[in-house]
Amino acid sequence: MKKNFSLKSWLMNAVTVFATIIIILTALLMFVGYKVTNPAIRLLESNPTNYGLEYEEVRFENRVDQLSLSGWWIPSDKQTLFKNDKAVIFAHGYGYNRTEMPFSSLQLASRMNEEGYDVFMFDFRNSGLSDKAPTTFGGNEKSDLLSAIDYVSQEKGVKDIALMGWSMGAVTSILAGAEADEVKAVIADSPFANLNEYAQDSFQYWTGLPKSFAAGTTRAIGVIVPGFNPGEVMPLNAAQAYPSDKGLFLIHSIKDGAIPYSESEAIHRQAVGSEIWLPEKGGHIRSYFHFQDEYEDRVLDFLQRQFRKHDPFLSDPIYYS
């Protein structure tokens, strides 16, 4: 009798310990899932007036979930360079906002503005001055960017648009660029090719936890953000569907420790007509910081060549050495 009681007691203790471990692991995965989908919100530390730019404060709604998004419309006073207005929409990286990245996005906006491009800079959900909502690494951000395209096209009357994104913004630009006819060119600095595969491979880098926790965290994120499917965040597939007249220019530092440059190489191999530049230093989305003049020249050359395909009245493109 005493032996049976001891066995029963042992089994109950074992079940209790096992249940406690499961609860702790579940709580840990939910915590990690919450943290990665809710990065700290950075405040805006500068504005276009710091670069002598005229601008308009803008708020617009996401076309799907009606979140309020915040941005700046920076019109160029040199639109005589083009027969029709041309606009570039910036898409910032994960955990950043329209200005707070490892380089001065306003400096780049100023150069583009000087060359005759309108520039639209905005904050994705859960960033800057936009409404709070979980970050989804390009999933729901795609509809944020498509809504920005709607705003520029419908409210500002600009039908020739380019997208320029960094990291998560690069991924989102490739995804949105595949769906929006107004988009004639996409510049993607440091994207990943497939979210599911990248999340598995880089899980330890971002969280410090073993890769074996990746699948559980993905399931936890599915609970935290209902309807979000990481399997749909595949810029590799989106880029494969680009028509021949929609340009894609990939930029990726060989020294990038956060997203390997092989991710951009994979997209480039599958995207017919795409172009790629692999700077030899710079780290993650830091190529502009290290190669500002060359970066600007390459981007402007690419934009001019792509827009020329859709506007025969453009002057002959300038090729930079």
TrEMBL record:
Question: Which keywords does the record carry?
Answer: Aminopeptidase, Hydrolase, Membrane, Protease, Transmembrane, Transmembrane helix
Q: Which organism is it from?
A: Shouchella xiaoxiensis
The name this protein carries in UniProt is: Dipeptidyl aminopeptidase/acylaminoacyl peptidase
Transmembrane residue ranges: 12-34
Start and end residues of each AB hydrolase-1 domain: 87-202
The UniProt GO MF terms for this protein read: aminopeptidase activity
**Which Pfam families does the record cross-reference, listed alphabetically?**
Abhydrolase_1 (PF00561)
Taxonomy, superkingdom: Bacteria
What positions belong to coiled-coil segments?
none
